[in-house]
Amino acid sequence: MQQPYEPLRSPDTSPRVLVVDDDPTVAEIVAGYLDRAGYAVDRADDGPTALTRAEAHRPDLVVLDLMLPGMDGLEVCRRIRGQGPVPVIMLTARGDEEDRILGLEVGADDYVTKPFSPRELVLRVESVLRRSRPAADTGRHRLGAAGLTVDPEARRATKNDTELALTLREFDLLSFFLRHPGRAFSREDLMREVWGWDFGDLSTVTVHVRRLRGKVEDDPARPRLIQTVWGVGYRFDPTGGED
Prior knowledge:
Rossmann fold, Arc Repressor Mutant, subunit A, globular
């Protein structure tokens, strides 16, 4: 049967998505749309069950509700991310900015606020998974500066030969900075070029820059590589501000 989305996988290698939501109607609708799009779907309706399912069958992506019984989505995200790099799209029934920022702070790669379009969520899942896959060999060389190295094909990043544990968006953001050293970009520019969004919550960019600084700067409180350009946005300076 022809799928409504162009498949990027064979039936035996379908990406596994874990849907975690205690609302059975939401979970059923989301799982149904993902299943029809060609994904292998697991479900959990509380935090502890989500961790058990994730350990038994490592997901390629998690769709995770913020408000869960037994353990909230923030703690579930922390623990799943602690086991290894798994993309997470967080769902929240509230539009409160603090909730969104907390989700991003613990490592969520994207978020969707309820109510949402199930088809839009499927497209977000496809977009996040596409970015998380190692790129085809396009002849692009590794990127490097200031002790940082990024391998776009393997999606690996290192600092002074030590591998960095970056989320999907952090990796994309660092790669973009390394490709454009010395140039200042606004948060709108970064959202468009790195996230692929023409509009959205700009605090997403702010949070990811802060998290990335925490992993690449010697002193994140006094960043020298990813500099704030007041009134504009951010600039990557491979010299670290030295003359």
